[in-house]
Amino acid sequence: MDYVLDTSALFSMQDLPPEVRCFTTPGVIRELERYGDKRSDLWGELLIVSEPTSTSLRKVREAASRTGDSTRLSPTDIEVLALALELKAQVLSDDYSLQNLATYLGIPFMPVGLKGIKDLRRWRWRCTGCGKIFEKEMPDCPICGSKLRSTMSRKD
């Protein structure tokens, strides 16, 4: 099986898994560079950097909107999932929102340094004033004007 690694996986790992192809995205490499992590230079050809297609990116963004993960995932997270979707690869990540969307999309994942999620979750937003629950994020409650806070629930 091929693996697609996100930034959290690369930060947690000392070596790449042997005897498998490991992919990542340009966004992950930029994040490593931003934090001064030089391991990607050492891994050289063992880590294949590839960009997902616009079709895969669109599918992942649409799914993120349905689960409510769209506000919790970075553009790099979206890239990682899109590439894994294209390659039919397993994602290595400790990011819970990324794992949640991977579960929704049927992409296998494996945590690297933390315990992984067990159940698919859906994000909703609850008004801090009137308590009304909304399926989509908004700047404030259209009923009473109070702020909304994200809340997680099991997939319904």
Q: List the secondary-structure elements in sequence, H or E.
A: EHEHHEHHEHEEEE
* Helix/strand structural class: alpha/beta
- Shape annotation: elongated
Biggest sheet: strand arrangement: 3-2-1-4-5
Helix content: 25-40%
Short description:
This protein has six helices and eight strands.
Give the helix/strand layout.
Blueprint: E1 3-5, H1 7-12, E2 22-24, H2 26-34, H3 39-43, E3 47-49, H4 54-67, H5 75-87, E4 90-92, H6 96-105, E5 109-110, E6 121-127, E7 133-134, E8 148-154
Parallel strand pairs: 1-2, 1-4, 2-3, 4-5
Antiparallel strand pairs: 6-7, 6-8
Question: Would you give an account of this structure?
Answer:
The protein has helices spanning 7-12, 26-34, 39-43, 54-67, 75-87, 96-105; strands at residues 3-5, 22-24, 47-49, 90-92, 109-110, 121-127, 133-134, 148-154. The protein contains 6 helices and 8 strands, in the order E-H-E-H-H-E-H-H-E-H-E-E-E-E. The mean pLDDT is 86. The strands form 2 sheets. A 5-stranded parallel beta sheet has the order 3-2-1-4-5. A 3-stranded antiparallel beta sheet has the order 7-6-8, with no helix packed on it. Helix 4 crosses helix 5, helix 4 packs across helix 6 and helix 5 (75-87) runs parallel beside helix 6 (96-105). It is of the alpha/beta class and 156 residues long. Strand 6 and strand 7 (133-134) form a beta hairpin. The two termini are 31 Å apart.
Protein traits:
single chain; 156 residues; alpha/beta; five-stranded parallel sheet; 37% helix; elongated
